[in-house]
């Protein structure tokens, strides 16, 4: 069974690596089409990544090991999150638990790596982006814990695979008030953690609006490719977790070839549909002022707290 579960984890990583650039391409293409532009096509992120990987990174003289270690740390932590979160199947290894607290801890490694990268550049933009990035992370992490904790109460465990499996067997749990509140809170968290509107605008380079872009502004070549890929993988992992919690149908509960094939197909459809929906909504959204972002994230925390309360009341 351990060999089969290892195969599941490897399949999740391969599927995520294959789907992630396509997800970004679909989101960009949907947005450009709705804005009346042709767009570069859904495969452009793949072409950009391949081009950047072939280029030598340029680092400032006197820079420290942070500039080359931070991209690697971000990619490795993102791949670990993709392996830990049940995306196409729910089984998990006993020594590598898909536990809520483990996933949040691994996510935090990538968050800190990005912040250190922005500070290491020594520019005002990098320091500003790191400061904003850590402020958002400090407001986001408690919401993730509380929201998933609300969903874990009916399942009596903090294992994400077991939570999704329990929601799959009990259809009524998907539409409970606690479940809906927790899903909405997690959706806001995904937008904030992955730098999407209205928290951050991934298509801007204005100094007053940059968060993620400010931290990677001084990176190039392979370093930039790893940073972009790591950030995209975080979006795939977190958005995949939300769509599987909201609509768990199709995910494999046993590591069989047929089950995995259905899980891959279902996850691909749900992920790309959710990404296209986010991109379509972004056309009609404006970026919030920085001082309004804590209000939005505080609102998501309140929703998560209400979800916990509703879970105990229903139980």
Describe the 3D structure.
- The model has no long low-confidence stretch (mean pLDDT 90).
- The protein has one domain.
- The chain contains 11 helices and no strands.
- It is 70% helix and 0% strand.
- It is mainly alpha-helical and 315 residues long.
- Helix 3 runs antiparallel to helix 4 and helix 4 (100-120) packs antiparallel against helix 5 (124-155).
Brief summary:
By secondary structure, the protein is an all-alpha fold. The protein contains 11 helices and no strands.
Keywords:
11 helices; single chain; mainly alpha; 315 residues
Structural topology:
Layout: H1 2-34, H2 44-53, H3 66-84, H4 100-120, H5 124-155, H6 160-169, H7 177-193, H8 212-215, H9 221-246, H10 257-282, H11 293-314
Biggest beta-sheet profile: none
Overall pLDDT metric: 90
Strand content: under 5%
Oligomer: single chain
Query: What does the overall shape look like?
Result: globular
Unreliable sequence segments: none
Q: How many structural domains in the coordinates?
A: 1
Helix content: 55-70%
Structural class: mainly alpha
What is the helix/strand order? HHHHHHHHHHH
| Total of DSSP H or I helical runs spanning 4+ residues | 11
Number of strands: 0
Distance between the termini: 34 Å
Whole-angstrom Rg? 19 Å
């Amino acid at each position: 069974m351990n060999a089969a579960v290892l195969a599941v984890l490897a399949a999740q990583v391969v599927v995520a690596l294959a789907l992630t650039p396509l997800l970004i391409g679909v989101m960009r293409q949907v947005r450009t089409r709705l804005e009346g532009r042709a767009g570069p096509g859904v495969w452009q992120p793949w072409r950009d990544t391949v081009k950047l990987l072939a280029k030598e990174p340029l680092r400032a003289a006197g820079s420290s090991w942070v500039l080359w270690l931070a991209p690697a740390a971000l990619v490795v932590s993102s791949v670990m999150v993709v392996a830990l979160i049940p995306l196409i199947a729910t089984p998990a290894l006993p020594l590598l638990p898909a536990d809520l607290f483990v996933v949040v801890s691994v996510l935090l490694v990538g968050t800190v790596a990005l912040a250190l990268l922005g500070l290491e550049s020594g520019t005002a933009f990098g320091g500003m982006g790191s400061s904003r990035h850590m402020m958002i992370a400090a407001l986001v992490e408690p919401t993730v814990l509380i929201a998933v904790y609300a969903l874990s109460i009916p399942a009596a465990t903090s294992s994400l695979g077991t939570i999704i499996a329990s929601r799959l067997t009990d259809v009524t749990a998907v539409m409970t008030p606690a479940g809906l509140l927790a899903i909405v809170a997690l959706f806001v968290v995904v937008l904030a953690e992955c730098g999407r509107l209205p928290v951050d605008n991934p298509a801007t380079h204005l100094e007053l609006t940059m968060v993620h872009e400010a931290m990677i502004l001084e990176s190039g070549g392979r370093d930039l490719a790893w940073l972009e890929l790591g950030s995209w993988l975080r979006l795939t992992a977190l958005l995949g977790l939300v769509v599987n919690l909201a609509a768990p149908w199709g995910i494999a509960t046993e590591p069989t070839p047929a089950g995995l094939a259905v899980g891959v197909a279902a996850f691909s459809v749900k992920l790309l549909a959710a990404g296209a929906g986010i991109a379509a909504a972004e056309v009609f959204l404006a970026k919030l002022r920085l001082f309004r972002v804590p209000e939005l994230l505080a609102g998501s925390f309140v929703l998560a707290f209400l979800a916990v309360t509703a879970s105990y009341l229903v139980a």
